[in-house]
Amino acid sequence: MTLVKFNPTKNNGSLIPGFNDVFDSVFNDTFFNDRLTSRVPAANISETEDHYHVELAAPGLKKEEFKLNLDRNVLNVAVERRNEHNDAAKNYSKREYSYNSWVRSFTLPESANAESIEASYTDGVLKIDIAKREEAKIVRRQIEIK
Length: 146
Description:
Largest sheet: 4 strands, antiparallel
Helix content: 10-25%
Shape: elongated
Distance between the termini: 93 Å
Number of helices: 2
Strand order of the largest sheet: 1-2-7-6
């Protein structure tokens, strides 16, 4: 009897050759890849002396597709988008509709002024500016030493 060293990487960690190939072919299909990929945009959050700034990278959307609302001290940014192409003249053998939605929520700090929030959408970036309350703004002054 000959001993053969077991190489788990040769069969993708499976004891049965080709076992994982079946699942790889199924989950590498574009149908699953499109649905398993996260569609929530990345966010950058920064702070200046008098504002908080939130930037969301959301290319390919229209500003009308965004819904921003404030519930207590939580700012919600939501998008719901449907792409349906109705062409009755074509005889489709495969047809996929695209629908995606996402929500990003940001808890505002106590120093944020909920009455002064502005948003704009240009070049695929949603920019939200949140003013700080007057008492939260950084006051700078020179202190005299006696």
